[in-house]
């Protein structure tokens, strides 16, 4: 823990204690030997896949209110955000290279990769929040995080220039079925690695070899930079180019995917509902820029206060 400044140590230790308790309470019993869940890869029609085209600045303006509301509704979100904000503050010394991301965007990526249950809970919600507009409005309590992750990936792609990555994704507890030639999406934010051996730590029940052109290397914004993580957004589509059984029993498969484009069924949905109801909406304000987003100090203090108020600390 030598890397933590002393003023952040109590907050971080408290959060780590909560994480340990949560993990212990939800761990699978040692005797549970149930086989992996079988899932068919498809276009994930129920996923929430907003790209926020043309409304980034307006969404950035809505963030403070959304964050306050969603922290109260979701303890894991407040927990992960506070831990990530503390980590970002430690990393940002006066001599650090200038980041292309705003503090809020960087903290969102760190929160996603933090060693807490947030990313699993978040992705489970993303996979179903697109069932209907009502589902998104009333049941999806990660609106701010979804926007910040989407916007952060787009900002990094713009800063570095468009490029494709050959990445590897391992999955534990799920066995995927796919047919060669199908077009599919992950339907959530999918973590992969530039290093094949790093992907094994995530599981070997399914292995993906992915050529992604929307995924972005988030190494500098990860709690685990050695994993060389590439984060793939839910709207990227892929062609299934090969499916290979890697065991004689056929219970493990290696699936090869090649980027084939993007599909988004939603755009600026939160603002559309606020501004236009069921009528048509036009957004042309552009994507957010780092100066548009809330500052780090305010977000960290607000998170800590909300954590105390909601009983997390």
TrEMBL record:
Q: Provide the leader sequence positions.
A: 1-27
Instruction: List keywords of the entry alphabetically.
Output: Disulfide bond, Glycosyltransferase, NAD, NADP, Nucleotidyltransferase, Signal, Transferase
InterPro entries found in the cross-reference section: ADP-ribosyltransferase_ARG (IPR050999), ART (IPR000768)
One matching Pfam family is ART
Q: Which GO terms describe its molecular function?
A: NAD+ poly-ADP-ribosyltransferase activity; NAD+-protein-arginine ADP-ribosyltransferase activity; nucleotidyltransferase activity
Family according to the record: Belongs to the Arg-specific ADP-ribosyltransferase family.
Report what the protein is called. Answer: NAD(P)(+)--arginine ADP-ribosyltransferase
